[in-house]
Specification:
Radius of gyration: 18 Å
Helix content: 40-55%
Structural class: alpha/beta
CATH topology: Glycerol-3-phosphate (1)-acyltransferase
Number of helices: 7
Distance between the termini: 51 Å
Order of helices and strands: HEEHEHEHEHEEHH
Number of strands: 7
Strand order of the largest sheet: 1-7-6-2-5-3-4
Strand content: 15-25%
CATH superfamily: Glycerol-3-phosphate (1)-acyltransferase
Length: 214
């Protein structure tokens, strides 16, 4: 399988280059069974970085335009990526994601739906919450600091508490589950962002004081 070969050849090289610094609930990266890993999306390398940091084989969905042509279609599918039509409610792709989770596989997705180039966290789309609401798989939010891509720097990720549909459902007050799940994921991701960037800024300030550049 191409995914296994790619991991063997490149994962450890990227691991040594970026030296991932994992903050927060590191143990959530090792959860067994069906699990949904969500992350903010600001760089084309984000899926690769999740593969580098998470010790599991992860399935992803990507826009169907990437699968045009036999070669590209074969390559992406061999890398455990399947197509989704982002212009419609792609029921086939959603069912495929659910089937993978029911089989105990790990599924990675970026709830913003596209790369956000502003440096902020964009509004989450509801597709991820729809998938989570239809299964029992926990959601693990992971914030990837954009500074990780500025030159060859250490990759910084902050892993949050797990989120489950049942947990959110118990707190509902006349709200739809998908909407509530989407809001919960967005809130948790924004908290991870604030926490991570504040920590990195403090570290930068301390370094500047030590070197006399403050």
């Amino acid at each position: 399988m191409l995914f296994v070969l790619a991991v063997i050849l490149f994962k450890w090289i990227l691991f040594l280059i970026h030296r991932p610094k994992i903050l927060g609930k590191k143990e959530n990266l090792k959860l067994k069974g069906g699990v949904i890993f969500i992350a903010n999306h600001q760089n084309y390398l984000d899926p690769v970085m999740l593969v580098v940091a998470i010790p599991r084989m992860i399935h992803f969905m990507a826009k169907k335009e990437l699968f045009e042509g036999r070669v590209k279609n074969a390559v992406f599918r061999s890398l455990l990526v399947f197509p989704v039509n982002r212009k419609t409610a792609d029921i086939k792709a959603l069912k495929q994601a659910l089937a993978l989770l029911e089989e105990g596989k790990a599924f990675g997705i970026f709830p913003e739906g596209r790369r956000c180039v502003t440096g902020e966290i964009d509004d989450f789309e509801k597709g991820t919450a729809f998938i989570a609401a239809k299964c029992t798989a926990p959601i693990v939010p992971i914030y990837i600091s954009p500074s990780s891509y500025k030159g060859i720097r250490r990759l910084v990720m902050n892993v949050g508490e797990t989120i489950t549909a049942d947990e959110v459902k118990q707190r509902l007050l006349g709200r739809k589950l998908v909407d509530a799940l989407t809001e919960r994921m967005q809130t948790d991701m924004e908290k991870l962002c604030e926490e991570t960037e504040a920590m990195l800024q403090q570290k930068k300030t301390r370094k500047e004081k030590r070197t006399g550049y403050a």
